[in-house]
Amino acid sequence: MAAHSCQFRVYYEDTDAGGIVYHARYLGFAERARAEALRSLGLAVGEMAAQDDIGFVVRQLSIRYHSPLRLDELLEVQTHLVEAVGARLKLQQVIRNLSCEGRKSVTIDVELACLKLTDMVPLRVPGAYLEKLSGLEIIS
User: Fold this and answer.
1) Pairing of strands 4-9, 74-85
2) What percent of the chain stands above pLDDT 70?
3) What structural domains does the chain harbor?
4) Which residue, among 60, 75, 59, 63, has the nearest Cα to 24 in the 3D structure?
5) pTM of the entire predicted model
């Protein structure tokens, strides 16, 4: 089992007036990387909604900024599964600056809630989903 990795480049639209990635943009990088991690496991967000009426929504998150990313730098988001219990998934995402020897830029701890989309009520993560999610490295 391994963490899922996804790479992005920092574009002008991601930065503030000083050419540094705007703090909220890290959440966008993390969101795209989570969607790609799920897709790589056979859990594409659109298909889960259309076929199973299931979605994962952010319940809570915390973010720690370590060092800034700048315009044109290459970054990597690593997504790890921390825990899957009941209707919740806990993930950790680490964003590293590949343009600066993989230096850690941001750590995001995110808790997702599994919902039945028609009535927006929590739903225990289905066993078939848990089996697929086992493809993400579990860290503690």
Assistant:
1) antiparallel
2) 97
3) 4-133 (3.10.129.10)
4) 63
5) 0.92
